[in-house]
Amino acid sequence: MTTTDRSAGVTVLPMPDLSPTFPGPFPSSPHADHIQAHVGQWLHRFPLLGPPDARRTLCDIVAHGVARTFPTAEPDGLFLCADLFLWLTAFDDTYGEATAAGSPAQLVRRIQGCLHVLADGEPPGDADPFDEALQDLLVRLRTRATAAQYLRVSCCLRDVLFGILWEAHHLAEPDHVRLHDYLAMRPHTVLVRTLIAVAEVVLRYELPEEARNSQAVRQAESAVADLAGVLNDLGSYARESAKGVPNSLNLVSLITREQSCDIPTAYAAASLLGEEHAAAARHGIGALATSDSAPLTEHAGALESIACSYIWHINHARYKKA
Questions:
Q1: pTM for this structure?
Q2: Is the predicted pLDDT of residue 53 greater than 90, yes or no?
Q3: What is the DSSP string of 194-253?
């Protein structure tokens, strides 16, 4: 149900009620300030963003987000994870979204250099800070991860790059995107699939392949991934609308078109969908947590903290700025 702020005369669209499934407060790593200092230094070494305000906001959300994603992890794993997600977010901010809408072909050429680094670890001759930072990340990832873990994470990075390109291709004409296709792509563009893969590297556990391919693990991971996508879209919709892009590539906008309804109705439908994903995630995590397998129990804890971090993220200042 929508409510109205009578003093401002503004309709307030409600976020999902996740208190029954993920009530909080969410634990945070004691290393949050160290993570923030580290990513600031890493950005100084690899200047991925220009404006100081953008750097400060991104460092803050990444540092405190990663601290809530893996609250029990040791610093080196947290630093690697934070740098990786800072790189992904900065790349999307710099080359994706509205910048790429005018020239998807330019984005294709930019991603080409990243794929070159992912393929052999060596930046191209005309490398820029993004190529050099990606090489640094892959060297550190290869040192910490098993061969299988490295392959999974690097495949997720390729999926994210394709997802950014897919979004850029459709940004100019979002009416052509079907809701089903968008929901299938969203877990990659919201980075949650990459975060699930990185969890094993950061927390130093590894699921047996039989368990990884089990229905229980797949369902729990899918529910957390779907929840992350819905939350991000709900949290960013007001920001996108304030920029004058109400017809954006966003779950709320897609629902209005596919169901021929108004914004409050679509927002309520997306909010309900988020609550359903949260309930499914809670059920799936609970099933894994009661397993006799130590890696499955560890994975359940990782999935729970990942879900909590996305819930925390949407209240950050990054989502409040127009």
A1: 0.91
A2: no
A3: HHHHHHHHHHT----HHHHTSHHHHHHHHHHHHHHHHHHHHHHHHHHHHTT-TT-SSHHH
